[in-house]
Amino acid sequence: MEVTSGTSASEPGENRTLRLCLLRRNHSREQHGVAASCLEDLRSKAFDILAIDKSLAPVTLVLAEDGTIVDDDDYFMCLPPNTKFVALAGNEKWAYSNSDGGTAWVSQESFSVDEADSGAGPEWKNVARQLKEDLSSIILLSEEDLQVLIDVPCSDLAQELGQSCVTVQGLQNTLLQVLDQREEARQSKQLLELYLQALEKEGSILSKQQESTAGFGDEGDVVDTGVSGERDPGTILSSQALTVLKEKPAPELSLSSQDLELVTKEDPKALAVALNWDVTKTETVQQACNQELSLRLQQIQSLRSLRNVSARRNPLPGELPGPKRARRDPTEP
User: What are phi and psi of 161, to 5 degrees?
Assistant: First the structure.
């Protein structure tokens, strides 16, 4: 918004165009509305409005948004109305304040949203491209990747996959079901472990296994010292995969298929040293990972078989079906 002022006695060429500005001191939240015809006019008014001592002259005007020094009249006239300025007197230095909203066309909220989008964008887009190439790779995705795709806005994911929002919404519902199934499997395994622990405390049949595990403890110590010089499985398994193995009660459900394959191929003794476990527990986890990997591969084969059958039954548009054999008239010789 611009305000043009002039007196009746003034010539038309002497009319002044006033710029509406917001002015404050450094480290102050109190700001004043000022109308100035030029940069020097704004500096002059800053002394009186902000009660700046004349001995601190000259006053430097900077943008409250980012501290840009404004010392050119042409630049000043190009700024939008209600631009925020900070008056720096003497040797004062500009410092950003959360109360600054910047100029009229910039908001701090927009910066926060852009930064959040740029940080999360590449991660979900890479997973989306993998899913676009092969839909059956849903089975191979880790729980973290599944959750990333579920959290992506439907319109963004639809644009990346080249599908309609209705189709993508159904896909996200399927991803949520897969995630829920893994969570249910994990909870079931936790309940089973609690039940087995209760049987051990009651002195049931599992007490024999507990005694054999205690007898194996001494041998485990000897084995551990013997493999201390072997290669570290951490050079193959990522730190994230090792953390999942240590902290998750059913780690095979949280690992990607690639990590499952690495775990199954790892030497049990070396992996036990890395996880600070006994060899028996390590082999049990490796067996569980192998079973989960086999199950996922079977599911992929089933999906691909169903896809091939569906493709044969539903030919592509424009593809002519084969000629049918004419039925013979029984009256003909």
Answer: -90, -10
Report the mean per-residue pLDDT for the chain: 74
126 CB neighbour count, 10 Å cutoff:
12
Answer yes or no: are the C-beta atoms of 24 and 34 closer than 8 Å: no
Beta strands in the chain (DSSP E): 2-5, 16-25, 31-36, 59-63, 83-89
Gap between the Cα atoms of 104 and 101, Å rounded? 8
Residue type, 241: A
Q: Name the one residue in this structure whose structure tokens are 């003794």.
A: 269
Structure tokens at 189: 């395994």
CB of 264 closer than 8 Å to CB of 256: no
Q: Give every CB contact of residue 16 below 8 A, 6+ residues apart in sequence.
A: 4, 5, 6, 37
Query: What is the spatial distance between Cα 175 and Cα 138, in angstroms, rounded to a whole number?
Result: 7
Q: Which residues pair with 150 in a beta bridge?
A: none
Buried b (16+ CB within 10 A) or exposed e, 142-157: bbebbebbbebeeeeb
Measured in residues, the chain has a length of 333
* CA of residue 109 relative to chain centroid, distance: 19
Over residues 86-139, the pLDDT tens digits come to 998 878 888 766 555 444 333 334 434 444 444 444 678 888 888 788 777 777
Q: Please, what's the largest Cα pairwise distance for the chain?
A: 125
DSSP state, residue 312 = H
Whether 82 contacts 22, CB under 8 Å: yes
Closest CA relative to residue 46, chosen from 38, 28, 62, 34:
34
Could you report the per-residue pLDDT of 194-235, keeping only the tens digit for each? 877 777 776 655 555 556 556 555 544 444 444 444 445 545
30 within 8 A of 87, measured Cβ to Cβ:
no
